[in-house]
Amino acid sequence: MSNAAAAQPPDKPKINLSPVDQAAILLMSLGEGDAAEILKHMGPKEVQRIGTAMSHLNNVQQAEVEVVLTNFLEEVRTLTGLGMGADSYIRNMLVTALGEDKANGLIDRILLGGNTTGLDTLKWMEARSVADIIRNEHPQIQAIVIAYLEPDQASEIMTYFPEKVRLDIMMRVASLDTVQPSALQELNDILEKQFAGNAASQTKAMGGYKVAAEIMNNLDSSIEAELMDAIKEVDEDMGTQIQDLMFVFDNLKEVEDRGIQALLREVSSEVLIVALKGADEGLQEKVFKNMSKRAAELLRDDLEAKGPVRVSEVETAQKEILTIARRMADSGEIMLGGGGEQMI
User: Fold this and answer.
1) Are residues 208 and 259 both part of a single domain?
2) E-state strands within the chain
3) Which range is least confidently modeled, 57-61, 208-212, 230-234?
4) CA–CA dist 157, 80 (Å, integer)
5) Considering only CA atoms, which of 234, 241, 184, 167 is closest in space to residue 208?
6) Same structural domain, 153 and 106
7) Do residues 147 and 211 lie in contact, with contact meaning Cβ atoms separated by under 8 Å?
């Protein structure tokens, strides 16, 4: 054996942790003070996801902690110019990753040190509280708020409204295109806060069929079906276009094999087992064939051994997987075929 070969470091141990779990372990390793400082620079969705992961961590092995820290240090080493022109670096990175429109709010908070204000405040609130705030507002105001928030939070808020109100809001969301700055200002007046940034300079793209479809995807199945039927009764073409853009769990059968393999690496075994309890045989086979023979056999055994599972638990697990799939699709890691969004 050559000296060069002998000098090679041993391979890192494999760990079966999602990126969110690794982030949770890293923050817990840093301690409360440092972790809190890091979380201040994250949005509500990131804080919620990492906080949930922290609460679910148990029996973390020392080897896992070491691998997480090693991975983090390796990524940090690839970053250059830290502390030198950082504002410009962060601004360019965010615009490249998110697009200028989505990046503006984050840039204001991170670079200018601004606090969360105006509409962004709603993102940190409980769904019931947001529903109470907008309950007596004009339906168009309600629709703008719903379209502005993340789809999963928006869908939860929708559950606190009566059926007729949900129908009105969803049809208005689907019909939205851009929103005048005066409308955004009005929402901030409701919250008695000034809108941060240059809201007066241009209209904001908001709503539309895709946003409506994303909100519908996050609703409970019974509410979703009921609402879709109601939309089609009023405007069949609108309902069809929204439905075509929806991506449901069964549509995973149409994702290419490499995409399924990448998705499976991000999903915990327990969530996958519960989700597949409610899947048809075709989708189960799609998952099995994209695993190693041994892993597929273990998953089959776990599915057979798993006792009855509540429908609500199955839906929650499936939605968690769909959330991961959509995030990976947004970042270009996988392509979601079927369900309406055409790939060329």
Assistant:
1) no
2) 178-179, 204-205
3) 57-61
4) 42
5) 241
6) no
7) yes
